[in-house]
Each structure stands twice: as structure tokens, then as C-alpha cells.
Write a structure and sequence with these properties.
By secondary structure, this protein is an alpha+beta fold. It contains three helices and eight strands. It has an eight-stranded antiparallel beta barrel with strand order 1-2-3-4-5-6-7-8. About 10% of the residues have low confidence.
Length: about 200
């Protein structure tokens, strides 16, 4: 019961802080990951490509035997406001990872590393944008297709990013590009050529 009160209080505080928040177009920062196998540190770059859709690239390593790169498409939905939302996504993952193979006959575990892996990542999390910071908590399961014995690995991650491009600025630049395209398509290069001769 105390956990429920804490969560409700946390959501209320996030909602009240979100009125001072800023939505983002591009955000970049650190991601800390934790799993049964290892702890990783990495970088995360998020780019909003539509109102509720972002693309995120995550490069992370444990500085030992595991380095991975994930490219994810994420759909965002508001919880309290547009600045406090949950998101779900999926994408591809590449890596250089360790693997553990169980030999049932000898009851040995064969440990290998340097395996080039390829798989599919899913992601689900909550995210808050406040001032020029984006804080998120996520769960990212990985399903191996090749390169590793274990089919499934899960990871919890905490990310802290800074806003590089604000949402309003990104939309303003998109509108400007669209206006430029329209004005270029409306102008006739042949008529401009004749006007120069006159």
C-alpha cells in the first residue's frame, strides 16, 4: 500500500513539474543499463520524426566482453501531459558479446566471448522532459537471432539526456523547408532565364 502511495505522489509531482517542461526534437545523453549478466554504460540519441514517434540509437558497453548497438523506433503516449509519457518500441541490435553454452552430458558451461551477435530489441519505458533534460526508465529485452547461445536477455536502463533541439524549433525548421520547397517548385527556371535577357 505504501508503494502505491509513493507512485501516486511521484506521478503527481511529475505532472506539476511538467508545466515548466520543454518538449524535445533531438536529445542526447547517457544511459546506464543493468542485467543479470552485467552493468553497462552508454550513449543515447533520440530524434523525434513525428509528433509521437522517435528514433533512438543506443551504444553501450561493459568495457569488458559486451558492446552492443541498438536502433529503435518508439511510439510515445502521454500519461499526464506530453512531457510525461510512456513509450513502446522495437528495432534491431548488433553486438560483440559473450555467450554461455550448457553441455548437459558433462554438466559444463562453455564460456565464449567476441561473438558477433544480431537480434531484435523491444523497449518499453516512461519518460519525463523537464527544462532541458529528458529522464527515462525503460526495460529493453533482446531476442538473439545469431551469434549467441542464449535466446533472450533483458536489461533495465536509466537515461539522462539533454535537449539539443527543442520541438518548437524543429517544427519551425520543417515548416521553413516546406515553404522553400513550394517556392522553388512554383518558380519556372525558363521564365527566369528570359527575364534575365530582357
Amino acid at each position: 500500500m505504501n508503494y502505491l502511495k509513493t507512485i501516486l505522489l511521484f506521478c503527481f509531482l511529475l505532472g506539476s513539474f511538467s508545466s515548466f517542461s520543454q518538449r524535445y526534437g533531438t536529445a542526447f545523453g547517457l544511459r546506464l543499463g543493468n542485467s543479470d549478466l552485467n552493468r553497462t554504460i552508454g550513449i543515447s540519441l533520440q530524434q523525434r520524426i513525428q509528433d509521437r514517434l522517435t528514433v533512438e540509437g543506443i551504444l553501450q558497453t561493459d568495457f569488458n566482453r559486451n558492446t552492443t548497438f541498438s536502433l529503435l523506433a518508439e511510439n510515445h503516449r502521454p500519461i499526464i501531459s506530453k512531457r510525461f509519457n510512456y513509450y513502446l518500441g522495437a528495432g534491431l541490435a548488433l553486438g560483440n558479446e559473450e555467450s554461455f553454452l550448457k553441455n548437459e552430458a558433462t554438466r559444463e558451461i562453455i564460456h565464449t566471448y567476441g561473438n558477433q551477435t544480431f537480434g531484435i530489441d523491444l523497449i518499453g519505458g516512461i519518460e519525463m522532459t523537464m527544462a532541458n533534460a529528458v529522464i527515462s526508465l525503460d526495460y529493453k529485452p533482446n531476442f538473439n537471432i545469431s551469434g549467441r547461445e542464449e535466446f533472450f536477455r533483458g536489461q533495465v536502463g536509466i537515461s539522462a539526456r539533454t535537449v539539443l533541439v527543442k520541438s518548437k524549433e524543429q517544427k519551425r525548421k520543417q515548416r521553413q523547408r516546406q515553404r522553400n520547397k513550394r517556392s522553388n517548385s512554383n518558380s519556372n527556371p525558363f521564365s527566369e532565364l528570359f527575364n534575365k535577357k530582357n
